[in-house]
Amino acid sequence: SVPKLARSSIACISAGLNMSQGTEYTLALPAFSNCAVWDLDREVWSAEAHYNTTIFVMGDVTVMDGGSLDLSGCDVRLWKTPQTTFGLWAYQGDISIAGSTFTPMLSQSPGLPLGVRMTVSGGANLSIAGSGLSWTPIVSYGSVRVNDSSLSESAVAGIYSESSWLSLSNVSLSYFSDGIKAYGSGLVCRNVTAEHCAASGIYASNCLVELANSSMRANDRGVYAAGSRGNATGVNISNNSNGFSLERSEIAVDGARFFGNAGYGLQMYRCSAPVGNVVASGNTMGLSLTESAPRIANLTANSNCYGIYSYASAPHLVDSSFDGNQIG
Questions:
Q1: Which residues of the chain have pLDDT under 50?
Q2: Alpha-carbon distance 314 to 269, whole Å?
Q3: Residue 243 in contact with residue 263, Cβ under 8 Å?
Q4: What is the C-alpha to C-alpha distance for residues 28 and 109, in angstroms, rounded to an integer?
Q5: What is the pLDDT of residues 39-59, one digit of tens each?
Q6: Which backbone phi and psi does 167 adopt, to 5 degrees?
Q7: How far is CA 111 from the centre of its chain?
Q8: Suppose 129 and one of 125, 147, 261, 284 were both cysteines; which one would form an S-S bond, judging by CB atoms 3.0 to 4.6 Å apart?
């Protein structure tokens, strides 16, 4: 078992660090009663744990075979230096993070934050719970579990997953290109919120998908799924440029709400998975169907331009109502 360390093995009251970022200068750290400075690349080969520690990371940290890194209640400050390529990497060992924050540490000049990356290889695990991560995309080729966490602000995807397993619960993603971008992965999202993403809140290609009680708001596109299968239950897709797009995917949609999307609420292209208990209101197109034949039951479509826009499709409508739409 991993020993619990009440304090880091490095305790510093203050420190002066010579950092090279274009030119050399000295950074004076504020006083901390319990802090660690990782000023070079580190390889973790055994069980290592830090609790309630302020950690200054100034190089790459790689968890090797047989190693584990446990960070609980830590304040991790990330510095962009010539030694930093990716950040934290569960190469063959595991990383567990709970109740910790990851934030960029700004230099005196020029003040560039670190776009750190947490990479997980096949056979390794990354577990994050109760944490706030800023400028911290996660790249997974292994197994990633994220609970009770917040990720924000990066020009790339918040979480990138390829041929891996990804589980998110009570997670907030904002201001990314894509909140989640997954290829050939198992993707479970429960109580996930993605907003203000320039591309998609969730992008899934050839994935097994479970979405439950999740919200996509103010993205260019709420959810895009291609060649995927699974189910989406109790999702709320609102105020996006476009809502929920299914392309050659068999994802059953139940109990969803599509409100105020500038284009479509739900779009289906060459799909036949069932749609049930859906409300679509205030969209240009409540539902947009192309070459699709879904069974649609208990649909309420009101105050859209088109209740249902259908092209070369044969939907089977059951117990549905249309009110206040300009067409259909």
A1: 1-27, 108-111
A2: 12
A3: yes
A4: 13
A5: 889 999 999 999 999 998 888
A6: -125, 125
A7: 26
A8: 147
